[in-house]
Design brief:
mainly alpha, globular
Length: 324
């Protein structure tokens, strides 16, 4: 019988709540690709990224104020938060919005939620000391085969052009940045609560975005943005940023990164369904089969928790759920 390791989270009163929060988060993230695809028709990527985190930062600050004194991060925590801001806020959003100007939302929906596993597993083995087992190897193989089917035509057909390939490349880059963010949440652990950790990383990322995006955002507002653009900023800022990032942080700490990754594999299913409904981007049979293989690959790779170094136990300890 397998022995439970210190880094594997056990059942607790907050586990069911964490699953519910993660499922809601998956649904919100599935809608991101449709909302963002429509939003890039009305504003530049820099304006959208800046507006999203300006709205999200204000809401997070209000929530954090209600929770009491803000924790002061130490040098180690500050370094981790800087990396989180650079990856999940600054780089991720610029590349994602730029990619959506070049490639369909369905491409983003298949790459961004699933490819991070290709980076997370080796990074976790290197940085967290997690061993790469046969389930992870099998899952990676299935995932790679599925991704080949999904993008075979984009890679080898002359009719799709270089713009779409460039957009897909940007989506792969965002997947790497998200993998780095996920690793950082494991390192940060319970030292800073999810609301404050998300707020600090958003503030750092926004400080980098503002010099580049303040003018485009101000111009878009001065021209009289449409109700659709305001709705997109609220969706991306409040739901995608505040609920999404905070609840993802909590979920990883409460049920573990592996189990959270299994749920994250549902994002493409929701996104492809919404893209077909609202953007008329209906995937063909080959792409549909590839998408199923990608989702199964992520599920297989995450179906057995990896074993980490004993010293990572404290960093992986569940944190207190702070959102009412």
């Amino acid at each position: 019988m397998a022995t439970k390791t210190a880094t594997e989270p056990g059942p607790g009163a907050g586990t069911a709540r964490a699953y519910v929060q993660l499922l809601i988060t998956i649904t919100i993230w599935g809608g991101y690709f449709v909302v963002a695809k429509k939003a890039v028709d009305e504003a530049s990527p820099l304006a959208l990224a800046t507006g999203r985190y300006l709205v999200g930062g204000i809401v997070l600050a209000l929530v954090a104020t209600r929770l009491g004194p803000w924790p002061r991060p130490g040098r180690r925590e500050l370094l981790i938060l800087v990396v989180m801001g650079l990856t999940s806020v600054f780089g991720f959003n610029i590349l994602a919005f730029m990619g959506l100007e070049l490639a369909p939302a369905s491409d983003a929906a298949l790459v961004m939620p699933t490819v991070p596993s290709l980076f997370v597993i080796p990074l976790a083995a290197w940085l967290l000391g997690e061993r790469l087992g046969r389930w992870q190897i099998a899952g990676l193989g299935l995932l790679l085969a599925g991704e080949f089917l999904v993008f075979r035509r984009a890679l080898f057909s002359e009719g799709l052009g270089g713009e779409r390939l460039a957009g897909i490349g940007m989506f792969v880059a965002t997947a790497f940045l998200w993998a780095m963010y996920t690793i950082c949440t494991r390192f940060l652990g319970g030292r800073i609560g999810p609301v404050h950790a998300t707020l600090y990383s958003v503030a750092i990322g926004l400080a980098l975005l503002a010099p580049l995006g303040a003018w485009p955002l101000g111009s878009a507002v001065a021209e009289g943005p449409s109700p659709g653009l305001w709705g997109a900023l609220l969706y991306l800022g409040v739901l995608q940023t505040v609920l999404g990032l905070v609840w993802w942080f909590e979920g990883v700490q409460a049920i573990g990164a592996s189990r959270a990754a299994v749920l994250n594999a549902l994002v493409p299913v929701v996104a492809l369904a919404l893209a077909a409904m609202f953007l008329d981007e209906v995937p063909g049979p080959e792409r549909s089969i590839g998408a199923v293989m990608v989702i199964l690959g992520v599920g297989v790779a995450a179906s057995r928790p990896a074993v980490g170094k004993p010293e990572m136990a404290d960093a992986a300890a569940p944190t207190t759920i702070l959102v009412d």
